[in-house]
Amino acid sequence: MQSDVVLRVVSKFLIPFILLFAFYVQFHGDFSPGGGFQAGVILAAGIILYALVFGVAASFRIVPMRATQIGAAIGVMIYGGTGVVSLLRGARYLDYNALAHDPVHGQHLGIFMVELGVGIGVASTMLWLFYSFTSHKLRRDGQS
Amino acid sequence: MTDWLHLVLLIALVVVALDLARLRDLFAAAMLTGFFSLLCAVYYTIVDAVDVAFTEAAVGAGLSTVLMLGALSLLDERVETGRVRNRIGALSAALAVAAMMLYATPDMPAYGDPTSPVNQPDRPAWRYVHQSGKEIGVPNIVTSVLASYRGYDTLGETNVIFTAGLAVYALLAGVRRKRGQDAE
Amino acid sequence: MTFRLATLVVLFSGIWLLWSGYFEPLLLSLGAVSVAITIWLSLRMQLLDRESAPLHLTWRFLLYVPWLLREILLANWAVIGLIIRGRGAISPRWVVVDGRQHHDETLAILANSITLTPGTVTVDVAGRTLLVHAVDAAAADGLLSDDMNRRVAALEVD
Amino acid sequence: METAALILDILSWALLLIGSAACVLAGIGLHRFPDVYSRTHASGVSDTLGVLAILTGLLLQAPSFGVGIKLLMVLGFLWISGPTATHALVQAAWIRGIEPVLGAGPDPFHRDEDGDNTEEVQ
Amino acid sequence: MTGLFGYWTVIATLAIGLYIMIAHGNLVKKVIGLNVVQTAVILFYVSFGKVHGGTAPILDERFEIYSNPLPHVLMLTAIVVGVATTAVALALIVRIWESYGSIEEDDIVRAELVE
Amino acid sequence: MKYEVTAIALVVALLLALMRAVRGPTTFDRILAVNAMGTIAVLLIAVSGFLTGRPDWLDLALIYALLNFIGTLAVLKFIRYRNLGLDGGLERRHQEEMFPWKPPR
Predict the structure, then answer these.
(1) Are E and D touching by the rule of 3+ CB pairs within 8 Å?
(2) Under CATH, which number does the domain F2-98 receive?
């Protein structure tokens, strides 16, 4: 697709907006529709768009396969770790009231961390899935 | 006012599903899935499930088509399905299931009924709607239920997604090995 | 490059504020982080060059938009007439347009302007040459009169 | 109702009606045109005029500044990504070898006189 | 009457999905059928979350009645999980194609019997 | 009232696009119908936001406006190279084998 002028220019123009929009959705999940799941999928879609236009090899240089694997694990760990922190502070698992002095503030913090974990996890996993399929194709055709 | 709208959308969904059952070209079927997802997103918006519509939009517009095509490209030229076999049996099984469920529908609450069992004050949803503003302090009730009230549930879902990624990687990343042939 | 980067940081921050509409310190700092990550990723992807962030075209492009809008409305009117008159009214044909542009971004603007005008669709681009499918003789003539081509080429006075 | 609000209301009525008509006509055009290439012209009507008229019609009724900005952004992004999608689609059809139905007119490919690509549209 | 119509169409969608899964021997087609069934389930859940006169469950002083948020939460995650599990199914199909040279159920069963 | 009229017109356009998607005849007609449906869905979501008095759902329309062409782009790449991960150099090699604007088979 890199050789097609229209697709290359338009994709290059739109990808930063898609990424910024993904972050917007991630951090405004409290006020408007959205949240970690949606933001993760949008972020992955932005990078997949890059991979479609410039090839998976170029995309590996931006976000390596290893990074998506680590990211997927880190996402789940942030989620689970939030629960462990509330355990350590003497409350039940994933009980955010204990995260801060004020229960409502604690809830805000807990929701923020959990959504962050979900966002990182979903974005990495979706990208990982895409990478798995396309790199398998490249490897099978002997073009890697 | 939006009542007629959701009926029309549901009928359109059934039409698309029927066409999916008829199509034998896998590529065309994958494209029609995109149409299906668009209709669903509009439907979810109409029935106030904005967050669900958001997810469907993100997934349907960006991801599911790409993943489907990624898999189809690995199946080489095989984009036509074989013949449909056992049409009578399949039809009767589907109809039997449909008939059983139809038999149960008169006991269901009507569409949009505010007095349906799920909306009663002794149900969890009542607390979510009326208390979450005070308890959590987040305007989007869906977010507070997702991340706080039902946090275990979402933890499980996140794990499922992670496991799915792991499974796909395990299936596809290994050295290719054909039947009756050693590893390359 | 630094000028372009600074402009883009301001632009993205502005877009964030417009989208967000909340001016609390927490969300503002999150916005700063988001803009920073976006810019960082875009730089890694080498997206922020003159091709995809054509800031040098901005003012001339804003003058081009009203003309494009008029063209689009006229073309819409013509195509609606064709739709009402039905199948017999159209006589599709191929048109080959040689772009007068020297840069890829303006060529893409030309191709998208052609597609955006109903009645003509850019099918393929090879080098500076565009293969266009036109719905009838009027649409093809409008394209061959080279008006749009010259206006888009005039965007890139350096 | 104030005069300004009334004028805005009438204007947005007009714009919404124009947009609705454009979308329905584009839908009809999807059926009246003979092949993919000419059908993209029909869908172009709803992609440009329909989007423009309906979104500006809504813009006149926007309750807040943020909503108006988002409407404008939807308009802008649709006008950038819509033609790109059309271009990609038509190019895919062209590569797959879908032959357009051509009317009388110059053919840049200069194919044989008996080539079947110059079939008249009925 | 119209109150139950939504359920009937959802049931029809589900039955069609089931039909696709049983009738088509092609594995990718089966996955598509599975997706249709999944969509039917999501539609079912989401449609009984709606409350007449209600609005989306995002708190705002202007509104009193909200639709039921619980089905939305359950289905929101189900959609993303559905994509991930579909990817697993497709990966399995790819491996099946690589070792059997076919994704038709009949061919695979025959190949297994020959061995 | 005006939003209802617009919504009805958009649903009519939606059904027309649906008929095109079902009728085919080629896969590209279906993709075209999906594309047209994408535009209509954006408009319908925007209008329904105004219809229910909560126009702050435009994020949904925005996401479709931003992402809806990724699917079509993937289709083009699939048709052209049968490989979604091919990069520029390999693409050019493919391209050279293919004379630009070769008349269809």
Answers:
(1) no
(2) 1.10.287
